[in-house]
Amino acid sequence: DTGVSQNPRHKITKRGQNVTFRCDPISEHNRLYWYRQTLGQGPEFLTYFQNEAQLEKSRLLSDRFSAERPKGSFSTLEIQRTEQGDSAMYLCASSPPIPLYEQYFGPGTRLTVT
Amino acid sequence: GQQLNQSPQSMFIQEGEDVSMNCTSSSIFNTWLWYKQDPGEGPVLLIALYKAGELTSNGRLTAQFGITRKDSFLNISASIPSDVGIYFCAGPPMDSNYQLIWGAGTKLIIKP
After folding, report:
1. How far apart are CA B86 and CA B96, in angstroms?
2. Per-residue pLDDT reduced to its tens digit, B47-79
3. Is A67 on the interface with B (CB under 8 A)?
4. Are residues A43 and B43, on separate chains, in Cβ contact within 8 Å?
């Protein structure tokens, strides 16, 4: 399977704990995106990487959120001191250099903060 | 900021029916994308549109890029049970080259 993969698929954590999610993009894609989706809404953009450089961050990405893509391949999204409002589906997408806007999504990580 | 409005919010359809949904914005988009999302899964890209007036098909799906560049339409012909899901429109806002903004989706439900 050469699609975008995300791990874990589900994560339940207690408020105040840190969590980390991983995304493996399609191998030839140099662009990687993180989105957050809550029930009944479309995805909301969090951040974007071109190769290893983080080029754009949403103001939704508070200080408790950090993302990395150290070697321009896989990426991690960490949430520190989780809050109940962080409960959501976290989606990762990747895209090739062209066409620019065609983003391909992974299955997501469902986070539940209790 | 730019927003995308999708209608209808949900539709009940019978197998075999044709389906139409649309997506509108108060501002211009240069690209429109249509995605489908099944429960518990990520969105899957269906159709991408790049030029005003463009009509593009993918099997039983046809999408159009509105002439004003402020809207787009998706039609599904002869619906089948696996068409059930949520359909999203998305597009890049004018102030970003990378992110997509999304509508709230149109939920397709098959009548029993």
Report:
1. 25
2. 999 999 999 999 999 999 999 999 999 999 999
3. no
4. yes
